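Problem 3 from the worked examples.
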Amino acid sequence: MNEILEILSENAKATPSEIAALLGMSEADVAREISELEEAGVIRKYVTLINWEKLDNSFVFAVLELKVALQRKTGYDAVAERIARFSEVDSVRLISGDHDLSVTVRGKSMKDIAYFVAEKIAPLEGVQSTCTHFILKSYKENGVILTDKPKPKRLVVTP
């Protein structure tokens, strides 16, 4: 099962027949295990990794660090679940350190993100403070290097 997940995490387009060939399993067994993983909620979604910097009309991304007042019965969950519902939010994580939540957001501009933080996140009950870090350049996402190495201009000469 973990081997199937490893393969799918590297290539979400891998077919059951390709996975079966790699693992020495039957295609039917692989398809059944994938279906079970989807039904159990282990596999939540298949995604495409996009290098937004290659597009002219790209998005602006930011990481927000939030200090949150701990809720008596729900802990951080209630605030995190409310923040997760915003369409601008890509991820919400409980973190250790000086802040409690790390929130990755995207917008059309820095101004859009600043407005989102000021008007929608900061006023939320339980949010004590915010710290916004704009992402200037991404070098690696989900284990994939995004920077292109320049192609050599001439052939290497060896003796």
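Problem 4, a separate protein:
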Amino acid sequence: MAAHPRSLKETLLRFYRLTHERLLTAAEGLSPEQFVWSAGLSLHSVAWQLWHAARWDDVIASYFHRALGHDPRKQVWERDSLAQRWSFPAESMGLRDTGTKMSDEGAEDLRFPDQKEVIRYAKLAFAYADEAIELIPDDLLLAVPKDDPDGDSRLDNILIYLEHLSRHLGMIESIRGLEGLVGSSTR
């Protein structure tokens, strides 16, 4: 019996969900001390890596929801007032308060809440991103939005963010290895 081929969107969601699952599993399998341990200024903690990956998924999900006219349109980060709840200094966490272009010293100074709270946020942001991808009609995946400064299609942007997630999964795997744990998330 021949298998039914997946649609492009089904394939994208499959790999987004797999990467999300691997990020969460790698973070959940750590002690609270291992979760916040930093290997130095340029290799931030698993807490930071997971938060940063979730922040960008939250940003892109919010963008797609807004662009497609669907609710909810606000980021989980904003809806749940997490910057305030976590006592993170607003507008000092780099580009769009995501950690991008944040100084290494600033990243190291962030004090994350309980591990379960960071993972809870990541789960919500990842689900929001999955939902946003599901909302995109197939015929719009290859369309370039008028407001995209780089001329990237929605598909381009989805793949850019999937690659971003994979880079931070690799960072988490490296940190786990430095901590003496199995680094690979695929074993």
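Solution to problem 4. DSSP finds eight helices and no strands in the chain. The radius of gyration is 17 Å.
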